[in-house]
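Hello K.,

You asked for the raw outputs rather than the summary table, so here they are, unedited. I folded two proteins back to back in the same session to keep the settings identical. This is the first:
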Amino acid sequence: MKNVLTLNSISPVINDIFDSSYNVAADVKNPEGIILRSFKMHDYDLPETVLAVARAGAGVNNIPVDAYAEKGVVVFNTPGANANDNISLGATGGVAENENKEEGALTGQKTLVKAPKKQGNNVVVETAVSNGKDTHHILYTIYPNGEVDMRVAFNNSSEETRRVGITMQFAPGFEGMLYYAKGPRSNYIDRQRGSLLGWYRTSVDKMFEELSTPQTMGDRQGLRELTLRNNGKGLQLNMKVEGQLAFSLSHYDDQQFNYDVFYGGKHPYDLTRSEQVFAHFDFWQRGIGNHSCGGDSCLPQFKTPTGEHVVTMRFTPKTFEPKARFCADIVKNIKPMGIK
């Protein structure tokens, strides 16, 4: 029997995850694992039996990660695990009031389709998000070496959907970036002819664009590979893509763009920068168009395809010496090249 201690009230859905070989309770002795939400662990006397600590929620600011790492204790966080069932559905983006607004993001019911189970040496988990019309299936495969495959099957029922993709948040510090996609400037499904496919090196801050009225920005089409780097802690996260995907990264939450540019009056200096990194990984964004004669349209070939669209992302964490040059072995003598 494995003992798991809960330091906060945790959703009963965990009973579907832990089988009878686990004893999960708030009063267990000699726990091998701990699950918490907001409990502050900096002054907590950690039992010597603990092997792993998991926070049901985003971030680990209430956990002394470095101190636990020295003891060999693994710390996890689970963005969304502490969220309500009614969540913002980044997987569809939503139809805005007009093309200048992020307002109108669809919401959907998040469900655990299949509880985590062992498959060979791996662990697989299947979840789904549905808004009643479109359901998006996400299959996670977790490998013993720490790699995670995320297979996303998007379903879209309207060619007027503004965005079909997912949103993520990365921990503060992952500022350095190397990517293989179209660049070096932002480009979109109907604004990419002048952008070349190749390796580009930049930072999250440099992806911000000084628009007079800030909106979602920084899109790069044709993503094949992305590496984020935390030089301060010697951490690196590599992502490889199978399927069609575009991406953007920002220190500004899209919720700040929820206003009408004609009457809202926001400017770049009105925004609040976060240390957190907000990411979009999109199968498709509907074409920008040209707003000719006041219309809100784009050419038919740039409207959002309906049906199911599958993309797989593989995330690989690594460590490195903080003084090492950023992926010098990759970028040396590589130049951007165009494709037809």
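The second followed immediately with the same parameters:
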Amino acid sequence: MFKWYLTAWKKYYLTAWKKYLVFGGRASLPEFLVFTSTNIVILTALVFADENLSSSTVSLYGVLCGLYGLAVALPTLAVVVRRLHDHWRSGWWYLILLFPIPGVMAFCAWLAQDGDPGENKYGPKPKLFTATVVCLFCAEEHKAWATVCKHCGTDLPKLTISHD
């Protein structure tokens, strides 16, 4: 099960970094969530590191967070714009955040919803990462973490990775 999570994390997080200057196309909900949540975890760790590195003579508080924030600013903007494209919205809808309460609520709702199922003017639906295990005896598909076939009871082979 951990192998599946690690593989999915690598695919989605690294995809966002590889497309750090790509503002066209669409980003899937898992790509956005993995990229955002990973950045939150890293920034949280950097806050603690900044606090521990600051001494009474030299104040470096915020330096690590600031540098990381600068590094992820452009990839985050690109992922959010592509995520908005998944809902038929242009990247200019990012400016709705200028209206604090209703803008933030609408923006978060758009980003958290699943995108349009088919192709739209920004491109085809992003491919999702799936990991399945196929029983060699009865050919039934199972979740990646399954070890025994629920149909015939035989042991399942190791994880195979596919894209749909």
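DSSP finds four helices and three strands in the chain.

Happy to rerun anything if the numbers look odd on your end.

Regards,
P.
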